[in-house]
Predict the structure.
Amino acid sequence: MADTKQTVTVNGSTVDKTVSRMTFDGDKVVMTFTDNTAQTEDMEAVTISFLYSGTGVGKVKADEMKDKRVFNLNGQYLGKGVEGRAKGVYVVDGKKVVVQ
């Protein structure tokens, strides 16, 4: 599962809360936080950045994929097994697999 970190900065100062909802009214942004408080600021003063980290694709041994049906990301059937395939992302047994 991916971890997400959110950083909210208003007028150069970091806000130590997590935004759960944002609405816009003209050049103002209303930020509603997870503690149910809200703050209205000029859009030019607000910066929100996100950092995502996760483990979406793991390592798989090619011999485990030997007899499994392989599809490209467009859903086209390519045959069985990933061995000898070009580098890329494939769908094998319903899971994304990276061939390096």
